[in-house]
Amino acid sequence: MQRMGMVIGLNADKVAEYRELHANVWPGVLKMITACNIRNYSIFLKEPENLLFGYWEYHGEDFEADAARMAADPETQRWWDVCMPCQAPLDTRKDGEWWAMMEDVFHLD
Fold it and tell me: Which of 33, 36, 82, 91 has the greatest count of CB atoms below 10 A from its CB?
């Protein structure tokens, strides 16, 4: 299992919309997340800075392949089309990232 954390900004005028979207995530999106070996997925919001912190545990063998599978899913693409306008990616993210991946520097079970 691999723990993964990521961060992105949230546009101030989209906070309510983003909260509502994630209170009612589409069932097909949830099914695809599970099918791609992601478990214990949470998104946290820090206001007033409007930063989103995402955390999940990856239980598969090939994250790149599972990420590509998710990205190819039509319902997931439609979900992203709705969510992405709410988000404000960090200027410091790596090439190819939307959410900026974070380094795991401490963990206690």
Answer: 36
